[in-house]
Amino acid sequence: MGFFQKLKERLGKTQNKLVHEIKRIVTRSPKLTADSAEELEAALLSADFGMTMTLRIIEATRKAYESKGKGEFDFVKVAADEVEKALSSGDPSLLDQGDDLTVISMVGVNGTGKTTTCAKLANRLKQQGKTVNLAACDTFRAAAIDQLKVWSERLDVPLTMGDYGADPAAVAHDAVSSSLSKKAHYLLIDTAGRLHTKHNLMQELQKVHRVMGKKLESAPHETLLVLDATTGMNALNQAREFNKAVPLTGLVITKLDGTSKAGMVVAIQNELKIPVKFIGVGEQPDDLQPFVAREFAHAIFGLDE
Questions:
Q1: What is the DSSP string of 170-208?
Q2: What digits encode the pLDDT tens for the residues 264-296?
Q3: How far is it, in rounded angstroms, from Cα 297 to Cα 269?
Q4: How far apart are CA 272 and CA 254, in angstroms?
Q5: Which one of 44, 114, 177, 217 is CB 3.0 to 4.6 Å from 49, fit for a cystine?
Q6: Nearest CA-CA partner of 196 in 184, 205, 188
Q7: Could you give the angle at the alpha carbon of 241 between the alpha carbons of 224 and 257, nearest 5°?
Q8: Which one, of 186, 182, 122, lies nearest residue 149 by Cα?
Q9: What φ, ψ does residue 104 adopt, rounded to 5°?
């Protein structure tokens, strides 16, 4: 099964609920009335597309209806096209500094899958012929260190780690030093999960980034926020607050296979203009894939490629 078909299948919860409701409304209403527009708005909002994107889709539909008439346009196709346009802003590719070390910091709240995402991304980069190092900077959770150690052994990727309770900034500093000496292409930093509302923990994350920046100019070069799709619009609040503390360069959306609210991907990128770089739709290493706007837009509405 190709990734598009897998994505389409895994987005089934969002797709089934959303497309079924859209078709019910559009089939029943002979034209786009105020009532049918309101119902369509409610259907899109229930999938967590956010008010801005929802109104944009409704307006595009209204224009299409006025120019073509009901029999000439497909609401689902119009909606997918608008979503694709919104998601196409920004560069979704991962930074690659060639022969120079690229440091990537994975940030986010507890339970989003940062550690697993680090491992999956390391696996992906290694398959591309890149040399990769890992750093266990979540020193507050002994299980996180152990988990990353298991992954580093499984993937045969070097790991820098400290003792439980060690200063995460010191671990990050050592990881950059080690990666530079080994002439690695990438260093992936697994930071501790922290609530976006905890000011002291966000300050600590800023310190980790400052320390790396002193050791290697502009490090971290990428700061990827890992978001759990099942949290819906709460993920938007997380993205806002993390972006204030440590400017984000990209998003990784995990657990898309377990939510009916995948529209949150569109809402976040539409407001913050931070590109989605990877999406996760399962537990297997190859279930983390680069984000392609057209594929996502078509999959969420049940359309073919």
A1: HHHHHHHHHHHHTT-SEEEEEEPP--TT-HHHHHHHHHH
A2: 888 888 888 999 999 987 777 777 889 999 999
A3: 13
A4: 18
A5: 44
A6: 205
A7: 55
A8: 122
A9: -120, 125
